[in-house]
Amino acid sequence: MSSAVSPWRCPMCHQPSEQVAVHGHVQCRVCGQNVDPCCSGETACPVDTASPGGDLSLRQGPGQTD
Description:
Blueprint: E1 8-9, E2 16-17, E3 19-22, E4 25-28, E5 34-36, H1 47-50
């Protein structure tokens, strides 16, 4: 029994192809269209840990006054 893996199909040109990583995004090898944008909503850390919360305040450095 052989397990045949169906090739990836580009959502733009619908051709069997490969995904190629180029400058932070993924594009189709056949048509060259961007199929996975570099900034598709990912964040470096979860939103809960990115916000400082209410207990942090800005502090002035030494020698700085209002």
